[in-house]
Design brief:
Its cofactor is FAD. Keywords: FAD, Flavoprotein, Oxidoreductase. It is a single chain. The protein is an alpha/beta fold and 656 residues long. The chain contains 19 helices and 20 strands. It has a domain of 138 residues: Succinate dehydrogenase/fumarate reductase flavoprotein, catalytic domain (Flavocytochrome C3, Chain A, domain 1), CATH 3.90.700.10. The strands form 5 sheets. A 5-stranded parallel beta sheet has the order 7-3-2-11-18, sandwiched between helices. A 4-stranded mixed beta sheet has the order 1-10-9-8. A 4-stranded antiparallel beta sheet has the order 17-12-19-20, covered by helices on one side. Strand 2, helix 1 and strand 3 form a beta-alpha-beta unit. The radius of gyration is 24 Å and the shape is globular. The N and C termini lie far apart (59 Å). The structure holds flavin-adenine dinucleotide. The site of flavin-adenine dinucleotide has 42 residues, from helix 1, helix 2, helix 5, strand 8 and helix 12.
């Protein structure tokens, strides 16, 4: 049996971004002893990189805003595939979560009359994003961390130990969620990145808050940690993933120089007046307003420009269409030969605002372009193009409790959870999602843990054989050439040399970018699945040299399992959905099909024991099934005009 240190907590939160920290605060406030584990340094998560703001219908800048309008915008943005109950809770609770942040010390930008300022963003009818310049995520994380410190100070007073009831384990990676003999969550298996030491945290509740999957694609705004770990951990624990075909390609990433390709150019640039032009100088977005949005967007440049000054009497410019529409339009312009010198299009604020306003409202963008591309955005346009940014698909959860389906004790919140954003997320709706559902996940995880203690079955117990299997799996890359890799299903690999994890990662990223990227075709996705099968077999021989002390090659070898699982889910679901909707565009099925609105695609691990060895490399590891979506509650449907619903709902839904 592997000698592995064990600790006991009530709730383990995996991830210290906005969702994880908000969940941890709630769980601790409910009285649960709470451990937070994060792969990188505490405070370094995607949330910190969020620029534009938090969407919440506080109505500070336009009193017409309210939760119903926010709900409508979110459903429209997601093309009605959203789990409507999540969209409802999100729209209703987001303002309270922003106020709460302020009471915990967040310093938002203000309106002239001293209220929290709110800015325009794509797909939002009113100015709705509470923000701190273009560094909102930083303030959000700083505030949540400060709240945790204050809770730890309370604990010190009471127990003489800062970490009595909330403790952060930073630079630790979770590789498995553990379960007891009844199939209930019993804890997590992790390794410390610096020392390579293994340890187990025993707990009845585990909250996954691990963020996104972007590192499976070559061009991405995501940083190194986003390898779909939580998605894979859920699958391996037996929970299904929902609608994984929906991946958001943000329209504006940097395209030059190559070393920074994919880094995000915030949507605030367009929200604050930035316009998109092609190489002919044409403001091309007016040619790309789809029928479903025709009534809500300006048809002329003059009307679009007037909207910035008088939004009540003009319609918004099409640069502020939802992200999927803008990304596809840019892609089409570049393909038609009207792109910028480095394969993007031009985004210009320099002709729209005085230099000092650009520097004040978009300080990070100003520095980002000056330092990384030697471009002064107050005087010249930026070059931008689509970049893989966000995954709408994720762990299938209960809308109210954030409980993962089918695995008692497992919860998921934030980007790792599916459903809230349907087929396409509106900008700003992630930060609010993290706060709303992070809180709910923490609350219900704490309740579940308390219930486990008082139940007849008692607290779940970690099974030794699971710990041994997790340790063996984690050590495997050190013996890629050894006998362990040549037994059982790996016998065919005998005699083959180990594979370099970096090469495998590059091939995976290229495959996903080229064959399952922004525009998808049947033949290409079939090729992608074949290639993923080949990579999966080779990844079992991913080998590293050296030891367990800070060994990035080893870490990547372990992350490959997750990226391959998630990529297969994306490719299989994208092949199955024969329509174009939100973040899923098929060249061979170019329109949205109302019949598909009733369909959720569910991915499960084919081998329910969670072992990966037994799976057939040709067949893949994922089973895909269709599931009917739950009908939208009538009072929520009544918030829309009938003429609008006709564009989205299937015939039978309309007649019902
Ligand atoms: P994250 O903040 O991504 O945190 C994930 C955490 O999980 C990290 O702590 C990570 O270390 C940890 N983790 C991952 N795997 C493991 C593992 N195996 N073991 C242990 N820990 C693990 N959204 C908006 O609403 N508004 C914006 O303005 C905005 N701007 C953005 C700008 C950029 C550049 C990017 C990349 C995203 C932006 N988004 C924005 C999206 C938003 O920031 C993310 O969707 C959101 O922050 C995700 O939060 P999260 O809490 O789910 O996860």
């Amino acid at each position: 049996m592997a000698q592995v240190e064990r600790q006991q907590w009530d709730v383990v939160v995996v991830g210290a971004g906005g969702a994880g920290l908000r969940a941890a605060i709630e769980a601790r406030e409910q009285g649960a002893r709470t451990a937070v584990i994060c792969k990188s340094l505490f405070g370094k998560a995607h949330t910190v990189m969020a620029e534009g703001g938090i969407a919440a219908s506080m109505g500070n800048v336009n009193a017409g805003d309210n939760w119903q309008v926010h709900f409508r915008d979110t459903m429209r943005g997601g093309k009605f595939l959203n789990q409507w109950r999540m969209a409802e809770l999100h729209a209703k609770e987001a303002p309270d979560r922003v106020w709460e942040l302020e009471t915990w010390g967040a310093l938002f930008d203000r309106t002239k009359d001293g209220r929290i300022s709110q800015r325009n963003f794509g797909g939002h009818e009113y100015p709705r994003l509470a923000h701190v310049g273009d560094r909102t995520g930083l303030e959000l994380i700083r505030t949540l961390q400060q709240k945790i410190v204050s809770l730890q100070q309370e604990d010190f007073k009471e127990h003489g130990d800062y970490e009595a009831r909330i403790k952060v384990f930073q630079e630790c990676t979770v590789t498995r969620v553990l379960k007891d003999d009844e199939g209930r969550v019993s804890g997590v298996f992790c390794y410390e990145r610096e020392s390579g030491r293994f340890f187990v945290i025993e707990a009845p509740s585990v909250v996954l808050a691990t963020g996104g999957i972007g590192k499976s694609f070559k061009v991405t705004s995501n940083s190194w940690e986003y390898t779909g770990d939580g998605h894979a951990l859920a699958l391996l624990a037996g929970a299904p993933l929902l609608n994984m075909e929906f991946v958001q390609f943000h329209p504006t990433g940097m395209v030059w120089p190559p070393s920074v390709k994919g880094i995000l150019v915030t949507e605030s640039v367009r929200g604050d007046g930035g316009v998109l032009r092609n190489s002919d100088g044409k403001r091309f977005m007016f040619d790309y307003i789809p029928d479903v949005f025709k009534e809500q967007y300006a048809q002329t440049e003059e009307e679009g420009d007037r909207w910035y000054e008088d939004p009540d009497h003009n319609r918004r410019p099409p640069e502020l269409l939802p992200r999927d529409e803008v990304a596809r339009a840019i892609n089409s312009e570049v393909k038609a030969g009207r792109g910028s010198p480095h394969g993007g299009v031009f985004l210009d604020v320099s002709t729209r605002m005085p230099a000092e306003v650009v520097r004040r409202r978009l300080p990070s963008m100003y520095h980002q372009f000056k330092e990384l591309a030697d471009v002064d955005i107050t005087a010249e346009p930026m070059e931008v193009g689509p970049t893989c940014h966000y995954v709408m698909g994720g762990v299938a959860v209960d809308s109210d409790t954030a409980a993962a389906r089918g695995v008692p004790g497992l919860f998921a919140a934030g980007e790792v959870a599916g459903g809230m954003h349907g087929s396409n997320r509106l900008g700003g709706n992630s930060l609010s999602d993290l706060l709303v559902f992070g809180r709910r996940a923490g609350l219900h995880a704490a309740e579940y843990a308390a219930g486990a203690d008082s139940s007849d079955a008692g607290r779940p117990v970690v099974v030794d054989s699971e710990v041994d299997a997790a340790a063996a799996e984690a050590l495997r890359p050190f013996s890629a050439e050894g006998p362990e890799a040549r037994t059982g299903d790996d016998a065919a690999a005998a005699g083959l040399p180990p594979e370099n994890p970096y090469t495998l990662h590059q091939e995976l990223q290229q495959t996903m970018n080229d064959l399952v990227g922004i525009i998808r075709r049947e033949g290409e996705m079939e090729k992608a699945l074949e290639k993923l099968g080949e990579l999966r077999v080779r990844a079992r021989r991913a080998g590293v040299e050296g030891h367990r002390q800070f060994n990035p090659g080893w870490h990547l070898s372990l992350d490959l399992r997750n990226m391959l699982l998630v990529s297969e889910c994306i490719a299989r679901a994208a092949l199955e959905r024969t329509e174009s909707r939100g973040g899923h565009t098929r060249e061979d099925h170019a329109t949205m099909d109302r019949a598909w609105r009733r369909v959720n695609l569910i991915c499960r691990l084919s081998d329910p024991t969670g072992g990966l060895a037994a799976t057939d490399p040709q067949r893949g590891q994922i089973d895909l099934s269709r599931e009917e979506t739950e009908p939208v509650r009538p009072d929520l449907l009544a918030l829309f005009e009938k003429e609008e619903l006709v564009k989205y709902l299937a015939e039978e839904e309309l007649s019902e």
